[in-house]
Amino acid sequence: MSHSTDYIGKPTNRVDGPAKVAGTAKYAAEFNVPNLLYGYVVSSPIAKGKITKIDAAPVLALPGVHQVFSHENVPSLAWLDRSYKDDIAPGGSPFRPLHSAEIKFSMQPVALVVADTFELARYAASVLHVEYEEEAHETELAKHLDEAYEPGRGKSGYKPPKSRGNFGKGWQQGVAHMEAQYSHHAQHHNPMEMFASTVEWLGDKKLNIYDKTQGAFNSQQYVMKIFGLGKDEARVVSKYTGGGFGSGLRPQYQLFLAVLASLELKRSVRVSLTRQQMFSFGHRPETLQHVALATAEDGSLTGINHVAVAETSQFEDFTENVVGWSGTLYDCKNVSLGYRLSKLDVYTPLDMRAPGAASGSIALEIAMDEMAYAAGLDPLEFRIRNYSDFDQAQNLPYSSKALRKCYAEGAAKFGWEKRTAEPGSMKDGNLLVGWGMGGGIWDASKQPAVAKASLDADGHLTVSSGTNDIGTGTYTIMTQIAAQSMGLPLEAVTFVLGDTELPEAPVQGGSWTAASIGNSVVEACTKLGEKLLKQAQKMDHPAFKDAKIDNVEFANGQLRLRADATQAVVLRDLVQASGEPKMEAENSTVLAKLELLKPPTHSMHAHNAVFVEVKVDPELMTVHVTRVVNAVAAGRILNPKTARSQVMGSVVWGISSALMEESVMDHRFGRYMNHNYAEYHVPVNADIHDIDVIFVSEEDDKVNPLGVKGIGEVGLLGVAAAVTNAIYHATGQRVRDLPVTIDKLL
Amino acid sequence: MSQVTQVPLGRAPVAPAPTQPVSLNINGQAHTLHIAPWTTLLDALREYLDLTGTKKGCDHGQCGACTVLVDGKRINSCLSLAVTHEDSRIQTIEGLGTEDKLSPLQQAFIDHDAFQCGYCTPGQICSAQGLINEGKAKNEAEVRELMSGNVCRCGAYPNILSAVMEVMQNEGLIMEDKAWSAGATEPEIAPVEPPKK
C-alpha cells in the first residue's frame, strides 16, 4: 500500500535549499565569534631546502599583530607519526605543519601571522622576512619513471592490481592490436569555498571548531591526538561544506594552525587559506599510463595490459585504484596490470572525485575506442561484445549490473545509430561533428555509521548522524528516508549532521554516504518504531496487544495495524504517554562492522555509459561539447532530482578534465603556476550545453537493504574519454595527453 | 644550493593606516563601520557586518562568488574597497529575500536544483538579478554567456540556466523561445567525405 509519505525515489527539493539561497547557511569561515583573531599563512617560495632565518621582530612590532608562529616557537606537540595520521592518511609519515626548518614542497606553510584583523594579518604576512637555503628539487614525473616502485598495501581501500591469465599469449592470439601511452596532469579540487577553520576559544582548552571538512570526526581525531585534547575539548562542527570533491577528506593545515594559535593565545582564531594556497595540498596526481589491447576475429578481447605510474610525495605513498577497473569492466582471460609510484618534491596527492577510476578510465576508454577502430567495429558494439557478466577480477557474480540497459537507453536517447564511423564524416554546416562514447565502473560500498532517531512530544522527528553534506543532498535524502520510515510528512522531520556531538559517521566520500547513513537511518527508525509499539502496548491499547512490528505500519503520523488502518494511535500521544520529553533509538554498527570482515559474496558496482557530441571549428579547432547523454546504473535512486544534479556535475567535471583542467607545474620552481581561478580553467555556464541524465532501473537486494549504490562519482567515469573520442571522430586526431587544448589540435 | 630571501629587509613593515568611519547603505539600512581604508567591500560585509551570505571564493575577481548589487549593478565585491561605496545603494543576498520570503530567483534556484554545495549560490542569484536589471540577455545563449562570470564548481550550470530562464520568462523578458538550446531541435547531420590527410 502506498502512502503520501512515500518519499524515497521521488524528486524532492533540497531541504537545505532555503538556507543556501537566502545566504543563511554558514560555512566554516562565517562564524563571527566574539574577539576573533585572524591568522594568515606565509607559504614557502621554494620546493626543497630549509628555512635559515625568520625575522619576526619587525612584524611583531606592528600594533595589532599578536604572534608569528613558526617552527622556531611551536610548543612541543605529539611526537609519533601515528598522532598525525587521519582516517584517510596513506602509508608514510604525514606532513607536520611548522614542525621543522625543512621544506618539502612549494608553498609549504612556514609561518602563521596572527593579528586583530584579516587585513592586518595579510599585510604582516606579506612583509615577514624569511630566508631559505634552497636545494635542487625534483618535480617532473617523466624524469623519474625508472625509480617507480610498487607501493605496499597503501591506504585503506587500495587494492593492489591483480593480473590473470597470460597477456603475452593473449596478445599473440589477437588479430588486431592497439598500444598507446596516455597522460594527464595534476588537477586540484578547487571547491568554491576556500579552506578555513574558525576556532572558538571557550576557556580552559575547550574549543568549538568550525572546520571545512568532509568528516567532522576525522578532524576531531586529528586535533585530539596532536594537541592532547579530550573529546569534549575539541568539538568539530561542519554543517555546510562549500564543495569537497575529496579535498576535505584529510584535515588540511589551516585546521592545525588555527587550533595551535587558539590554544597558545587563548583566543578565538580563524585561519582561511587563499585560493593560491589551496594548490599547496592534495591533488589528483599526474599519471602516465600505458594500455595495450588485442582482439580476436570476432572482436572479443584476447588481452588487456594496463600500467600506470603516478606521482606521490617524498613522505607518503598515495595510492589509488587506477588500473584495477580494467580487469573488471570487460570480459577477458588475459589481463596484465601494473601500478607504480614515483616520489617527487610535491605535497601528497589526495583522493579527487572518482579517485583512480577517473584517471584509469581516461586511458582504458580511449584505448577501447582505438581498439574498436583497429578492429573495424563500432565502439558501442565493441563494448557490448566484450560485456562482462561475471567479475573475473574478484571471481564473483555481480550483485546487479544494468550496464546493458545503460548502453541501450543511452544510445537510443543520443541517436547513436545515426553515427557514421569514419572520422570527419559528420558535419553541421562548416563545423566538424564528432560522436564518442565511454563508460565506467565504481565501487558500491558501505561503511559502519550510527544514526539516532528522536521523536518529541510534538510529534517532530529529529534524525541525526555526524556525517556531512558537501552538496550531495545528504540532508534531503536522509529526511526523505526518515519521513517515509516513520510515516511523517517531510516538514515533521529534521535531519541533523556535521557535528562531533552527534552519533559517529565516517567521512563523506567514496559515494558511500547514501548507503552507509541511509541504511543506518532506516535501522534507527525501525528501532524507534519498536519502542513506539511497546509504548502502545504499555498503554493497554487492545488492538496492539499481540501485534508484532511486522503487523504495524507508520503512516499519517500514526502507528496503526496493517490489517486494519482504523486501529491507530497518534505518535505524538505515544511520546506524551511515555512521560519522557522524547523517545529515541540508535542503530547498532556491530553487524556492519562484521560485514566488513566477511569475504564478499558478490561484486558490487555502479556502472555508466556516456555519449558525447562535440562540434569543432575546422580552422580554429575550438571544441564545443554540444550534447551529452549519461546513462547510469546505480541501484535505487533515492532522489532523482538531487541525483541528476550530481551526475550533471560529474559531466561538467568530465568535460573540464577533457578540455580545460590542469595544474601546470613550472619545474624550475617546482610550483603550480596557474594557481588561481582565472588560470586554472574550469567550465563556466557558456561552456556547458545539453546534458541528459538517465537512471536505468536496477534492483539490487544484495548490495544493502536500501538497494542504493551511490552516484557521486560514477557519473564522471568515461566522460573525458568520450569527449576525446568524439574529438577523434570529428577531426581524425587522437590526442592522448589531456586536457585536449587547442594547441594539441592545430 | 642557493639562498632565497622571501622579503628583502629593505621593505620593512610600516604601520598600517588607521581605521576610519565608513558609512554604508546596505539592503536599505545605514551602517557606520570603523575600518581600515584597504578593507574590501566583501570583507566589510563578511567580517564587520556579519553579512556572510556574500561569499569569498578567490578574493581576486575570478569566481564571482562575492557578487553583490551596487546601485542595481552586479560587481565583484572583493575587487572594490568599502570606502568607495559611501554613496552607493548596496544589495546583498540577504536583501533579496529571506528563508521565509524568498525572491522569485531564490525560489527558482530551489525548484530547479540550481546548486549543490550552495557556496556560489548567493553570487549566482545576485548576478542573475543584475543580469535581469541590465536587460541585455534575451535568450538562453545570452543568459549562459552573461552568467559566465560566476563559477560553479559543482557544475549546476544547466539548472542555473533553467532557473534564470524561468524567472525571465515569467517577467516577460525572453524574446526567443528556446532559441539556442542545443538538442532542442534535431541537429542536421549530413555524412561528408573524410578530410584528406
TrEMBL record, chain A:
Q: Which Gene3D superfamilies match?
A: Aldehyde oxidase/xanthine dehydrogenase, a/b hammerhead, Aldehyde oxidase/xanthine dehydrogenase, molybdopterin binding domain
Q: Which GO terms describe its molecular function?
A: iron ion binding; oxidoreductase activity
List residues of the Aldehyde oxidase/xanthine dehydrogenase a/b hammerhead domain. 22-136
What is this protein identified as? Xanthine dehydrogenase family protein molybdopterin-binding subunit
Under the heading PANTHER family, the entry gives: DEHYDROGENASE, XANTHINE DEHYDROGENASE
**InterPro entries assigned:** Ald_Oxase/Xan_DH_a/b, Ald_Oxase/Xan_DH_a/b_sf, Ald_Oxase/xanthine_DH-like, AldOxase/xan_DH_MoCoBD1, AldOxase/xan_DH_MoCoBD2, AldOxase/xan_DH_Mopterin-bd_sf
Domain of life the protein comes from: Bacteria
UniProtKB/TrEMBL annotation, chain B:
The chain positions of domain 2Fe-2S ferredoxin-type read 20-96
The cross-references to SUPFAM superfamilies, in alphabetical order and at most eight, read:
2Fe-2S ferredoxin-like, CO dehydrogenase ISP C-domain like
Recorded GO MF terms: 2 iron, 2 sulfur cluster binding; metal ion binding; oxidoreductase activity, acting on the aldehyde or oxo group of donors
Q: Does the keyword tRNA processing apply?
A: no
Taking the record's annotation, the residue ranges forming a coiled coil are: none
Q: Which Pfam families match?
A: Fer2, Fer2_2
Keywords for the protein's UniProt record, in alphabetical order: 2Fe-2S, Iron, Iron-sulfur, Metal-binding, Oxidoreductase
Top-level taxon of the source organism: Bacteria
Q: Which CDD domains match?
A: fer2 (cd00207)
Q: Which PANTHER family match?
A: OXIDOREDUCTASE WITH IRON-SULFUR SUBUNIT, OXIDOREDUCTASE, IRON-SULPHUR BINDING SUBUNIT-RELATED-RELATED
Q: What is this protein called?
A: (2Fe-2S)-binding protein
Please report the organism this UniProt entry assigns to the protein.
Hymenobacter properus
